[in-house]
Structures are given as structure tokens and as C-alpha cells.
């Protein structure tokens, strides 16, 4: 089993930066591709960014965040990060980290992820 805990979300003004963290634990964590998703009020959860855990650290981003957000991971700390720059009000939402079972590749699809954290709230005021 794998447990994920997000942190770092808070209220900020437009243009600010934030860094979200996701700490993983459990025997299934090693080698899991991971991703960030977000859900705005009244909307469906959507893909934000994903990263391969071991091989090269290949990444994918949603078009809405390309050039502003950076996903990274610290293997030694079992932690994934999302650096969010130039935040906009439309970035407001509950941000979830997610992980796939080891052995699978990177995915932008919500259904591909088996493990989810509880979410951390990001609110961007205009």
C-alpha cells in the first residue's frame, strides 16, 4: 500500500509563487510514476503535471500550466514537488498528488492512477 500526503497550499495573490509537496510512504512507492491533478469548485478534476520517478525524470504538463509550473522529485526523500509561478485566479483549486503502481509509465489520465492524497487547497486572489 502507498500513502500520499500533500502540503503547501494557501491563499496567495495573483502573480505569486507557491511550492506544493507530496510525501509518499509505503512499500509500493519506489519507482511509481506520479502526478498532480487539481479540481476547481464546480469542475471536474483535471491533469496538471506528471513525472517519471526513476528513469530520467521525464515530465508532462497541461497546456494551461506550461512555462509556469515545474514538477520535480527528490528520490531520497520520497517527495514530489510542484513549483507554481505566476499564479492566476484560474489556478485556484484543490491540488491532489497521485501515484501509479510501479512498472507503469507516465500518464496524464486520472484513471491511470491508483493512489491519491487528500489534497491541499490553493487559492489565488485577483
Key words describing this protein structure:
seven-stranded mixed sheet, globular, mainly beta, 126 residues
The multimeric state of the shown protein is single chain
Strand content: over 45%
Largest sheet: 7 strands, mixed
Mean pLDDT: 92
**Spatial separation of the terminal alpha carbons:** 40 Å
Residues in helices, as a percent range: under 10%
The sequence of SSEs as H and E is EEEEEEEEEEE
Short description:
0% of the residues lie in helices and 46% in strands. The chain is mostly beta strands and 126 residues long.
Describe this protein's structure.
By secondary structure, this protein is mostly beta strands. Helices cover 0% and strands 46% of the residues. It contains no helices and 11 strands. The protein has strands at residues 3-7, 11-13, 18-25, 34-39, 46-51, 59-61, 69-74, 79-84, 93-99, 115-116, 120-125. Strands 2, 4, 5, 6, 9, 10 and 11 form a 7-stranded mixed sheet that branches. A hairpin with a 4-residue loop joins strand 7 (69-74) and strand 8 (79-84). The protein is globular and about 40 Å long. The mean pLDDT is 92.
Structural topology:
Elements: E1 3-7, E2 11-13, E3 18-25, E4 34-39, E5 46-51, E6 59-61, E7 69-74, E8 79-84, E9 93-99, E10 115-116, E11 120-125
Parallel strand pairs: 2-11
Antiparallel strand pairs: 1-3, 3-8, 4-5, 4-9, 5-6, 7-8, 9-10, 9-11
Amino acid at each position: 500500500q502507498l500513502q500520499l500526503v500533500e502540503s503547501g497550499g494557501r491563499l496567495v495573490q495573483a502573480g505569486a509563487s507557491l511550492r506544493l509537496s507530496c510525501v509518499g510512504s509505503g512499500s509500493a512507492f519506489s519507482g511509481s510514476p506520479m502526478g498532480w491533478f487539481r479540481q476547481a469548485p464546480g469542475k471536474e478534476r483535471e491533469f496538471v503535471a506528471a513525472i517519471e520517478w526513476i528513469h530520467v525524470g521525464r515530465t508532462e504538463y497541461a497546456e494551461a500550466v506550461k512555462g509556469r509550473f515545474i514538477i520535480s522529485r527528490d528520490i531520497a526523500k520520497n517527495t514530489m514537488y510542484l513549483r507554481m509561478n505566476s499564479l492566476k485566479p484560474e489556478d485556484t483549486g484543490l491540488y491532489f498528488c497521485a501515484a501509479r503502481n510501479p512498472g507503469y509509465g507516465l500518464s496524464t489520465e486520472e484513471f491511470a492512477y491508483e493512489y491519491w492524497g487528500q489534497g491541499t487547497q490553493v487559492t489565488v486572489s485577483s
